[in-house]
Structure formats: C-alpha cells, structure tokens
Amino acid sequence: MAGYVAAIDQGTTSTRCLLVDHGGRPVASHQLEHAQHLPRPGWVEHDPGEIWANTREVVGAALDRADAEPADIVAIGVTNQRETTVVWERATGRPVHQAIVWQDTRTQRICDRLAAAGGVDRFRKTTGLPLATYFAGPKIAWILESVDGARAAAERGDLLFGTVDTYLLWQITGGFDGGVHVTDVTNASRTLLMDLRTLDWDADICAEMGVPVTMLPEIRSSSEVYGHARETGFLGGTPVAGVLGDQQAATFGQACFEPGEAKNTYGTGNFLLLNTGREPVASRHGLLTTVAYQVGSGDPVYALEGSIAVTGSLVQWLRDNLGLIRSADEIEALARTVDDNGGAYVVPAFSGLFAPHWRPDARGVIVGLTRYVNRAHLARAVLEATAFQTREVVDAMRADSGVDLRELRVDGGMVVDDLLMQFQADLLGVPVVRPVVIETTALGAAYAAGLAVGFWEGLDDVRRHWTEDTRWEPSRDGAWREREMRRWRKAVERTLDWVEDDE
Question: Where is 203: in which H helix or E strand?
C-alpha cells in the first residue's frame, strides 16, 4: 500500500517526525532539541511555543528528506512526554505559564497536603497511582494557585489543560479557531484525575485537587480519528488518528499485545511496562497501574509500569554539567577502558527516587570513591546505574505479578550501547532483545494512527512487522548478581532523607 504515516514523537529533550511505510519501516526523519529551563533546584520547564514551532519544522523536514508531499501522508500519530503539563488560554492559545515537566518536584507540598487526609495512596484504588510530583494533576493545581488570575480564568472556562499530546493536537487541528481538545486514555491515566475503570475524569478527585473539570480534555481511545490538520502547509486535511503516551507507544511499537509481554525503554528516564490484560492489577511493590492502550471501541488493555526518572539524562549530566565527555556517544568507549566501576556507584536521585521507592526526599549520590577511581570508572558507573535501577523494577514486577521474566525487549536511544545491554542481561539473568527498528515510540504512534484509517488491518498485522536484531545472553552467575545488587542497595540507602521538611 502506498503512502506513509507521519509520527510526531514529542519527547523530553527533543521533537522528531518519523515517516513510516506500510512495511513498518522508517523512511525518513528529522529531530530538533528544545531548551531545558531550570529556574530553581528541582524545577524543570519547557516552552510550549518552542515545542510547537519545532513540531512544524520537523514535519516539513521529514517530508523533504523523503521527497514526499503532504498528500502522501495517510494519517498523523502523536506520542509525547507524559505528565508534562500545559495550561493555555482558550481564546488565544497563549500558555499562562511554561510547561511544567514530569521531572519537576515543585508540587511536593501540594502532594503532602493532599496526602494528609489519607496518605500517599489516597487515590490509588481509583487512579492506580500514588500521590507524587510526577503526575499532571498536582501540576495543574500549582499553576492555578501560583499564576495571578489563573484560577478565576479556569473557573470561567477560559483556560484549557493538556499534556503535550493535547496541546499539539489542539494546535494541529486549528488552535483557537476550532482546535480539537482531546487526549487519549494512556495520557489521561497519568494525571491522577482519571478513573481507571470508567475511563473518565473523577469529579471528586478533581474537586479535592482544585481542578475544574471544564478545563480538562475529552478522553478518547488511542486509535481513532480525532480531527484533521487545518493548516495547508502542515499536512492540511490529513486525519490525526493516533495518540499514545510515549511509554505506551513503545509498548505498542514492540508488539507487546499479550499479557506477560514486557518492554523497557531507555530514554531520558527508563520505563518498563508489563501487559496485564483487560483488568487493572493493583501493585503492592511500588509500581504504577496504568492503561497500556485502547484501540477504537475495543476494551482497554492495562499494564504495570516501573518508572525511573533519570537514566539517559544522567549521561547528559555527565556531558553538560561535569564535562567528562563531549558527546553522549563517547560514554561507551570511555567506559570500556576499564574493567569495572572501580567500586564507585552513582545513584541519580535528582528528582527523588521513582519506582519502586517513591522517595521525594532522596537526592543523588556518588559513593565508593577512592583515589583509584577515574573518569572512566565514573562513566561506567553512570551506565550501570541504568541497569541497576531496571533490575529493581523487574524484581518489583515479579513480586506483583508472580511472573518470571523470560526475556526483556528493549528500545530507546541507549540500546545502541552494547556494554550497557550486556551488563543489563548479566544483572537480570535473562536475555535482552533489541528489535531491528529501535524507534519504537514513534513506531507505536504510527501503528495506532494507521490502524484507525485502515493502513494496517489489525494487531496481527502490526505484530508481523516486529523483527529481532540483537540478543544479549547473560554471562554472569547468580552470586555475582546478588553481590552487585547488595552494593547498589547500600548506595541507594545513602540518598534517603536528604531533603528535610522545612525545605
């Protein structure tokens, strides 16, 4: 079948457009980074206007690289950094504040205030989530409480909220001139405001959080036609037909459609999702219950998720803040100049610890330093931190589900690092498998959009496109694994109780 699906992959550090053909193959792409605004310790912001401008540019550039015309695009899919919160004026499209990024911790006092009446699991039975700064609901509350006039404007119906998918979809379909204000079930499930079973906003939780329901988008499935691009030069007339939060998109792109299938994405953070089927599974070991996807009018499919805040961004920190490498792709070669980490461990609790600990009081540490440790040991410790955190999540997932992992499908920017992937297999004691196409986040959004317009026939059609590329088998014994994990757990303990109540 001729034509392409355009997948807009709006991530934490960059925006990309990937054109995908009927065989599930990437044809052309273009990517632009956007600025990370860090006004205070623990605060992370993005400029929504810059993200929208970059989105328009990467789509045009991808078309040029494929020598394609807008008429060649059969559908647009959108995948996005989840939880990142935008509040804007309905009449003008002007954001009332910078986007508050998922990593941001400024809402801790709001979370503490809400937890005072029922603990951090107060809303978990309904939403599948603990009270944490990670999620969008408290970020909306902070904007309404902190921006002059915002609450009154929201209560008048003058403000709209959206995670980045919603903001982009509204812009693409016309903005203040008739733009569609919707989100999908996967993104809505990351707000702390949606009932996992009804797939609708919970009015009581919204009221407790001080968020008017009128500013929230309509919740739709992950694969259906939401509207059409309005701008002639920006794929005008093309249906926007797929929306998935980035980690659910990667799960979809990895064809994890059966209960028990799992993937791990190695990006700015790490996110491991285990398909649990058509019923949500409550976690007792620090994981999140979330919606994996919903195709059209079909039943929703749920997942357990382990969310790790800092993995790929730790490599960026080593590059940008410490200057130990000039580019991210140098880290593997540097780490290979030594045989191990020299006894040093890096725990990157820059925004507290996410799964399975959920400790906002934690802060990052480097432990085990001696005169022997050099920059190569630190580079290796930075890579290994990603694998250690993943092992903690896998252990929690096993405890919750009772299912032993047989293999781990991996994707994301860090999976090109063979040293890290081998260390991951060694630490887990199971094979780690990388597919031929590692851009699975964008691929998942493309599949969702293509399914909605008949470009692909169904999930079996999508599954046929998944192909294994590289497999790393574990080469270490159980005693080595447990010794390494024991040292890692000691390092994690050193991060705790750093932020005090009066901070």
Answer: helix 203-209
DSSP element (H, E) containing 376: helix 375-401
- As to burial, measured by CB atoms within 10 angstroms (0-12 exposed, 13-18 middle, 19+ buried), residue 130 is buried
**Residues sharing a CB contact under 8 Å with residue 460, sequence separation 6 or more, in sequence order:** none
Dihedral sign for Cα atoms in the order 422, 425, 429, 430 = negative
pLDDT in tens, 33-55: 999 999 998 899 999 999 999 99
Q: What is the DSSP letter of 414?
A: G
Residue 199, Cβ density class (10 Å: 0-12 exposed, 13-18 middle, ≥19 buried): middle
Distances (CA, A) of 178 to 91, 169, 170, 229, 451: 10, 11, 8, 11, 25
Tokens in use for 474?
């574990």
Half-sphere exposure of 220 (CA within 13 A, CB side): 23
What are 367's strand-pairing partners?
345
Beta bridge partners of 78: 8, 243
Q: Which of 18-27, 28-37, 130-139, 233-242 has the lowest mean pLDDT?
A: 233-242
User: What is the per-residue pLDDT across 135-152, written as a single tens digit (0 to 9) for each?
Assistant: 999 999 999 999 999 999
> What H or E segment, with its residue span, contains residue 270?
strand 270-277
Please write the tens of the pLDDT for every residue from 383-427: 999 999 999 999 998 888 877 778 899 988 899 999 999 999 999
Q: What percent of the chain has pLDDT over 90?
A: 79
With vertex at residue 437, the alpha carbon angle to CA 436 and CA 440, rounded to the nearest 5 degrees, is 140
Give the Cα separation of 231 and 181 in Å (integer).
17
